[in-house]
Each structure stands twice: as structure tokens, then as C-alpha cells.
UniProtKB/TrEMBL annotation:
Organism: Halomonas casei
Localization: Membrane
Name of this protein: DMT family transporter
Sorted UniProt keywords: Membrane, Transmembrane, Transmembrane helix
Topology class, membrane: Multi-pass membrane protein
Transmembrane segments: 12-32, 38-59, 80-97, 103-120, 132-152, 158-176, 188-210, 216-236, 272-288
Length: 303
């Protein structure tokens, strides 16, 4: 029991660490967003994320052996959706605060719940229904009060891009759910990063910025932070169930708020504070459904 509790605690700390690292990545992207095109940011973020991911896979002895695949088209779909989600998310953070962009990313589990019903034939349970309702209420509280004013400032575009990024991420993760039956986590992560790097590189003819030394360092850091965050999240989910980690989504959103306040001088809005508990409660409900199903399965096996 003590060993199990230690693993859960480690998973929780890794989830908190991943939140800090993801925030660091978005801070770097936002800091250069006025001068660096989105495609260029995607390229550097993806290219330098390869370094920590490949080192991690080598330590696990999954590189290059773990990159073998039997479903290249599945990888292409997952990677394409993931790369498109990265473009949308990075474009969103140019218009929004880091906290708002991060909060909108929390719509991903809600879109996944709906996608599971519409695409995979899963049951639309009361947990999913409640999660969707709470998340949509949170979005309404965040967006609607200042929608007229935000249309002028570009926030409306940012909200749309943030929601699109969450939708595309949900599609990518639903694809992961399908291909992970035969494909390793190493291959799924590696091919996504490679495709995102190539997608970013493809925007070079559209015009890239001549980077200053500071901008170059920030883009490199965005990749290192992003790759390390992916590893930390992967390990967190290995050591602790999603339902155990869900409450710590609140802590993960503390870092974006602090980053906005300290680094960019952006105060937290009342709409954000009202939307936060609604949206994260929806995420928690979705996680509770998965835990309930596992507990039911364990009970049936004991019968």
C-alpha cells in the first residue's frame, strides 16, 4: 500500500511539474508572438522538443526500436491533427493571456467525451452530460461578458483559435486511443513531433523573421519545455489515475496566472475566476466516469 501511495504522490508531483513546464513553453511563445510567425514558432518548438524526448526514449531503451509501426496512416492522422492543434494554440496565445489560452485548452476532455459518443459509439452518460454542461457554462462565463469589446481587440479571434486548438487536440487524442492498441507510446510521440517540425518548416516560403539572440533562446526553450512537459505528463498518468490528478488541474492553472501578472503585467479577469471552477469541474466529472468504470470492472471480476 505504501508503495502504491508513493507512486500516486510521484504522479501528482509530476503533474504539477508538467503544468509549470507547459506554462514556460507558452510564456516563451507569447513573448515572441509579436515578431515571430506562428509557423516558425511551431518549427522551433517541435525541433528542440525532440532532444528531451529522444533522450527519454533512449533511457527507456525504446529508441530506435520502439519507433517501428504497423499503422503509418494512423500516425499521419494523429500527427496532422496534433500539428494543426499546435498552430491554433500558438496563434491563440498571441491574442489572449497565457491563463485564458491554458483554460481554453481544458476543453479538450469535453470534446473527447463528445467525440467518443459521436465517433466511437460510446454511451452519453450523466457524467459526460454534466461535464459538457459545466464546461460550456465556463466558456460562456469567460467569453460572453466582453464579447463585443473583445471583437475589436482581437480576443474573439483568440477565443475561437483556443477552442479550435482544443477540438483538434481532442481529435488527435481520440486517434491515439485507437492506434495505441498496436503502437507504442514512443512511436506516437516521436512521429507527432517530426510531422509538426515539418509542418512548421513548410511555412518558411511564407516568410520567417530574422531572430534576435533573445528570440532564438526563447524558441529553443519553448521546445525544451514542451518536450519535458510531455514526458512529465506521460509519467504522471503512468503513476496515478487521471481522476486522482484532476484536482491538481487547479494548481496547474496557478502558473499561467502568475506568469501573466509577473511577466506581462496582465491581471486576472473576473470572467476567468468564474469560469475556472466550472470548466475544471467538468474535467473532473469526465475523469470520475473513467474511474467509475474501472471500479465497476474490478467489482465484477471479484464476483
Amino acid at each position: 500500500m505504501d508503495n502504491l501511495q508513493e507512486k500516486v504522490s510521484l504522479g501528482i508531483w509530476l503533474r504539477i511539474l508538467s503544468g509549470m513546464l507547459f506554462t514556460g513553453m507558452l510564456v516563451c511563445i507569447k513573448a515572441v508572438s509579436d515578431d515571430v510567425p506562428v509557423g516558425q514558432s511551431v518549427f522551433f518548438r517541435s525541433l528542440f522538443a525532440l532532444l528531451p524526448v529522444v533522450i527519454f526514449l533512449m533511457l527507456r531503451r525504446e529508441f530506435p526500436r520502439g519507433l517501428a509501426t504497423r499503422r503509418p496512416l494512423g500516425h499521419a492522422l494523429r500527427s496532422g491533427l496534433g500539428a494543426a492543434a499546435m498552430f491554433a494554440s500558438f496563434a491563440a496565445v498571441a491574442f489572449l493571456s497565457v491563463a485564458e489560452a491554458t483554460l481554453l485548452a481544458q476543453l479538450t476532455p469535453v470534446f473527447m467525451a463528445l467525440g467518443g459518443v459521436l465517433l466511437l459509439g460510446e454511451r452519453f452518460s450523466r457524467y459526460r452530460m454534466g461535464g459538457v454542461a459545466l464546461a460550456l457554462a465556463g466558456v460562456a462565463v469567460l467569453i460572453l461578458p466582453g464579447l463585443n469589446a473583445s471583437a475589436v481587440s482581437g480576443q474573439a479571434t483568440g477565443y475561437a483559435l483556443g477552442a479550435l486548438g482544443a477540438l483538434l487536440t481532442a481529435g488527435a487524442l481520440l486517434t491515439v486511443r485507437r492506434i495505441s492498441r498496436t503502437e507504442s507510446a514512443a512511436s506516437i510521440a516521436f512521429y507527432f513531433i517530426v510531422v509538426a517540425t515539418l509542418a512548421g518548416l513548410a511555412t518558411l516560403p511564407l516568410g520567417w523573421a530574422a531572430l534576435t539572440r533573445v528570440e532564438f533562446v526563447l524558441l529553443v526553450l519553448s521546445g525544451l519545455f514542451g518536450g519535458a512537459a510531455h514526458i512529465a505528463m506521460t509519467l504522471a498518468l503512468r503513476y496515478a489515475e487521471a481522476s486522482r490528478l484532476a484536482p491538481f488541474e487547479y494548481i496547474a492553472l496557478v502558473w499561467p496566472v502568475l506568469a501573466d501578472w509577473v511577466l506581462f503585467g496582465i491581471p486576472v479577469s473576473s470572467g476567468f475566476l468564474l469560469a475556472l471552477p466550472l470548466m475544471l469541474s467538468g474535467v473532473a466529472l469526465a475523469a470520475m466516469e473513467g474511474r467509475r468504470l474501472r471500479l465497476t470492472a474490478k467489482w465484477l471480476l471479484r464476483r
